[in-house]
Design brief:
- The protein is rod-shaped.
- It has 2 domains: 68 residues, no CATH class; 142 residues, no CATH class.
- The longest helix is centred in the middle third of the chain and has 36 residues.
- It has 244 residues and is an alpha+beta fold.
- A 4-stranded mixed beta sheet has the order 1-3-4-2, with no helix packed on it.
């Protein structure tokens, strides 16, 4: 039988080594019936499998016996806080949004590349170069970086930076490459001024690019990468037998 402080004892410290349970270490179970449905939901009106009898040895009502629950693992009188579940739900939602955004970004870049591949050669090189140089001059650096990356161009450490490197690339490019770059540059510029998804969808429609099929392929590739990443992570951990 537990020895406990009185129910009416203030919550506080307990002398070291004392066998008496302080008030904040147990839940007192009331004998009287709850007066309402709300009262019936309160912990002190519920009986659990850990419920046992305890005798009050300190404070008021000394010598009386009452039912208590002193188990910290009791789901009735010591339920786990719900914040962990909420945190897990929030993290899962954030991860879902991250994956969706990654798929949307990868799909957009893949569609842009497919549109570029569908552009035919029509103008002379000097015309194409002139148009492209003027369009590029209007682009923000991050969009120019996106365009350059699709052609394997990286910024060099010189005074001109990426703009100078890209300008040198397009002067050496053939008519087909310049035509594709003009279309892709036009799409990126239009996307910076209005809804990017609408601009990309309209361009995909003109050049017969299946955006749904592209999105599905991107999802499959990302899923395969995540699966391989998890497999590599598990294989990297030593087994229990190997550790011994």
């Amino acid at each position: 039988m537990y020895q406990v402080e009185s129910f009416r004892t203030a919550y506080g410290g307990q002398k070291e080594g004392s066998p008496v349970l302080p008030r904040n270490k147990y839940t007192a179970i009331r004998d009287d019936k709850p007066k309402s449905k709300d009262d019936a939901k309160r912990p002190e009106h519920k009986v659990c499998k850990f419920t046992t009898e305890a005798i009050i040895t300190e404070g008021t009502d000394i010598g009386t016996v009452h039912k208590v629950c002193a188990s910290p693992s009791c789901p009735v009188h010591h339920p786990k806080p719900q914040t962990s579940r909420n945190d897990e739900k929030w993290k899962a939602e954030q991860e879902k949004q991250r994956k969706e955004q990654a798929i949307a970004n990868a799909t957009g870049l893949r569609v842009l590349a497919a549109i570029g591949d569908a552009v035919p050669v029509r103008l002379m090189k000097r015309d194409l170069l002139f148009i492209l140089e003027k369009l590029v001059s209007l682009m923000e650096e991050n969009r120019l970086e996106t365009l350059a990356r699709q052609h394997g161009i990286r910024q060099k450490r010189d005074d001109g930076g990426l703009a100078k490197t890209f300008a040198a690339f397009i002067r050496r490019a053939d008519e087909g490459t310049l035509s594709r770059l003009i279309v892709k540059t036009t799409i990126l510029l239009a996307a910076s001024k209005t809804n990017p998804a609408t601009v990309l969808r309209d361009a995909a429609s003109v050049y017969n690019v299946d955006t749904d099929a592209t999105a599905l392929k991107v999802k499959q590739e990302l899923a395969a990468k995540e699966k391989a990443k998890k497999a590599n992570g598990q294989s990297a951990k030593p087994s229990k037998r190997a550790a011994r």
